[in-house]
Amino acid sequence: MNITDIVKTLDGTLVAGGESDRKVGTVVANDLMSDVLLNDGDDILLLTSLASDQAIRTANIVGAMCVVVHNAKPLPQTMCQVADTLGIPLVSSPLSKYDSCVRIHDFLAKEG
Amino acid sequence: MEYRPTILTGGEKLSDDQIMAAHERKHVKRVSGPGLPGSDGQGEPLVIMELLQRLRVKDVMRDHDIISVVRTDTMHFAQNLMKRNHISGVPVVEGKRLFGIVSINDIILALEGGWIGEQCQKHMATNLVVLEEDMPLAFALKYFENYIFGRFPVLNKERDLVGIVSQRDVTRVLMRELTNELARLEGAPGTPGAEQPGAAQGQEASKSEPVLPYYSMRQFVVVRNDLTNAGKAANAIKKMLGDAGVEKKIIRRIAVAAYELEINICIHSLGGSITFILDSHKATVIAKDKGPGIKDVEWALRDGTSTANDWIRSMGFGAGMGLSNSKRVADVFDIKSTVPTGTTVLCEFNLPERAAAAK
Known about the structure:
The complex is a heterodimer of chains A (112) and B (359).
Chain A lengths: L2 H7 L3 E4 L9 E4 L3 H6 L5 E5 L4 H9 L4 E4 L7 H10 L3 E3 L4 H15 L1
Parallel strand pairs in A: 2-3, 3-4, 4-5
Antiparallel strand pairs in A: 1-5
Chain B lengths: L5 E3 L7 H13 L17 H9 L2 H4 L14 H11 L3 E6 L2 E7 H10 L6 H4 L4 E5 L4 H10 L4 E5 L5 E6 H19 L17 H5 L8 E7 L9 H12 L4 H21 L3 E7 L3 E8 L7 H4 L9 H5 L7 H8 L2 E7 L3 E9 L1 H7 L1
Parallel strand pairs in B: 4-5
Antiparallel strand pairs in B: 1-4, 2-3, 5-6, 7-8, 8-9, 9-11, 10-11
């Protein structure tokens, strides 16, 4: 599952950070950044409702491959700027976090 | 390394009283570490301390067009030389060997005593305090503070004269270096203080040959409640580690600790700093804040315990995992806290690959 697959699966829009050919290694759905930092997985896809610069900086610390913000929350301009600077793809999705988890699970299950 | 004042002896001349007075001052003064003049080296910002240790005397000395006389030149010749060049002393040199110094005081006494036409070698000061080119700049500053001289000759290991350093030389270089350091700390583009593209995946490190500087230190100011900028220090530290070729898994552990501690300072304290030290075998993150301190450190170290308010929680923090997360990833963890003075947290990380490379 790459960025294109994520955008398509979650009815989302890539709003910042640019394209990337990295693939999802671990999926983390969380709004508490300390919990995200606890995760030792590689190539993390971060599903969150936190629309702030810190979501991107946290993603950078753990080497995440993409951040998805849910419920079509308006994204602060600074958040997009940080995503562009750090080169982390930022996707906005109208889905709830729960629905995103379900769709991603289905996709990965099919992908094997 | 400890440096002691180097005094070349070979005679006793006019500046003897001055030298003795300077020595007395030095011995009366309390023993102090290298740092800014008038300080004990403990209170300055670490950025300045690091600068004063990193810069060497040879980085600030004037090593070309050194104005000098030879032993057989007359005091009158030395006087004219000093007058033309607006300087208050000239070294007496032959080849690269330093024999003495003729100062403005020597000239005044020569005029009063009527020996202005005699050779410099008879009246020059030969009891000299000199600097060595590899001394840290901090020691040069201490010399300027402890002795009355406005300039010092600089010798190399072979005891050859290789330069002259004056207070003006020191000020010029220090101003330049501090300006560069300030630009870096303010996050100017292209500097380690700024967020760097590619840092997330360690791309910078993979593009270029890893470099292993023996020792580097950076300090980042963390402002209370400034969540807009919180995390920049951790990202910069991650970038530094990537550039130094440190293993990715270790980089992540260090970055997690730096980030948690940086956020802690931002949301729980009155402000403080993150200091990062990278040496040949370990990385150290020191988080120091200005208060209010933690009443019960044991309680604060437990997972899920937090004094965070709703605003902090709405920003994704305040889950009470910061300190325990930092402790979890560090090889050595230490915390000291005093109410209301503040809290200092130290996290050390072993770098076995780097230590092996250094060997």
